[in-house]
Amino acid sequence: MVTALNKAAIVTDTLEIDPAVAEAASEHFDFMPTGRRIIGDARYEIRQLKDPYDLIILDVFTGGTEPTHLLTVEALTQLHSLLSEHGILALNFVSFLDRGKNTALASVSRTLAQVFSHQQVFISDPGTDFNDFIFLATNHAINLDDDSIPFSNRAWLKQRLLDIDSTHGTVLTDNFSNLELLQIRKSEHYRRMIVDSIGTHHFIR
């Protein structure tokens, strides 16, 4: 993402909890930060930030489980406070769609609605149940017909736009978050995918 944004002359700060991951990104994937490279837990580090951001990308949901403390009303409120007036929070969430009835997906949508007045949800691979879902949360409506968006991009986005029914979801807070429980099936599925892909010898000493 940093590389793609850099091509558009957008300077990007990065935040990573694991210093080994940050080191590997530079040594093995030629990652070059264009802004500040921050190492630490997001809930603590974002409280130290002051400058407003036009775009915040929250993409911490690969692997077997999510750090659920980053998807509560309190965490999203902290991120909201860092956005500029017309800023956008882009959140990537991995789950099943379950014909639009997935409770975890609905809970994320309902929690975002507690903090942001507008949101749009896009499915990465239409027609597939297990998927990446991208939430765009803002204080203003996003017009997908805006002339500043290339026509091909508009068509691509509209094909993936979802209407999420959040009424069967729960509001996730620091005091109560059952997201990890709701995502057990997703975690098991994801781990089976990894084992099927690379085998078990990487996990056994």
From TrEMBL:
PANTHER family: THERMOSPERMINE SYNTHASE ACAULIS5. Keywords: Polyamine biosynthesis. This is Spermidine synthase. It comes from the Bacteria. GO terms for biological process: polyamine biosynthetic process.
